[in-house]
């Protein structure tokens, strides 16, 4: 589990390509301070497992399923990546709960300056947009951000100068692909509403009215 607060930018040092998978070796510093074999490190928002490491780099396997649903297959040697270590119990939750399990890809369609902020428009499929709400949270390339505006085929986020400087989002141009992970709470709610019957063949007590009455949905 992660928070969407990027700790540092790493750099891809080596890529070993299989037929449908890759092995990445990434140069880093901060995320290696207390690393152990088997630790999870979010890499551009994707939860990956450390299989080996030195004082300057670590290696991870990227399986075919991850290649299909993320932008990691587009990485090249010297590409920069957002890095975050897994959340520890007792840590501050500065962003929101992020699993590192990517829901799909988005495409940056516009960037514009608004005073000290950079507004980024991201186009996404309806399968992802249905979980996004105005002022809700979303992880983009592993960065926890707030949805500033929601359209029919896209949504906007606003980057403060610090986020633009310390993550890849400030550097990505129009046309670039980004990894998207929606707030998992919405998916759990949808699953409960879709489950009309439980194992006892009884109708679920959870419906839209119950959620509204208890403050989970706006009236």
UniProtKB/TrEMBL annotation:
Location of the Lumazine-binding domain: 1-96, 97-193
GO biological process assignments: riboflavin biosynthetic process
Keyword Repeat on entry: yes
Residue ranges of Lumazine-binding repeats: 1-96, 97-193
Pathway: Cofactor biosynthesis; riboflavin biosynthesis; riboflavin from 2-hydroxy-3-oxobutyl phosphate and 5-amino-6-(D-ribitylamino)uracil: step 2/2
CDD domains hit by this protein: Riboflavin_synthase_like
Molecular function as annotated in GO: riboflavin synthase activity
Catalytic activity annotation: 2 6,7-dimethyl-8-(1-D-ribityl)lumazine + H(+) = 5-amino-6-(D-ribitylamino)uracil + riboflavin
Keywords assigned: Repeat, Riboflavin biosynthesis, Transferase
Known role: Catalyzes the dismutation of two molecules of 6,7-dimethyl-8-ribityllumazine, resulting in the formation of riboflavin and 5-amino-6-(D-ribitylamino)uracil.
Identification of the protein by name: Riboflavin synthase
Provenance organism: Orenia metallireducens
Lineage: Bacteria, Bacillati, Bacillota, Clostridia, Halanaerobiales
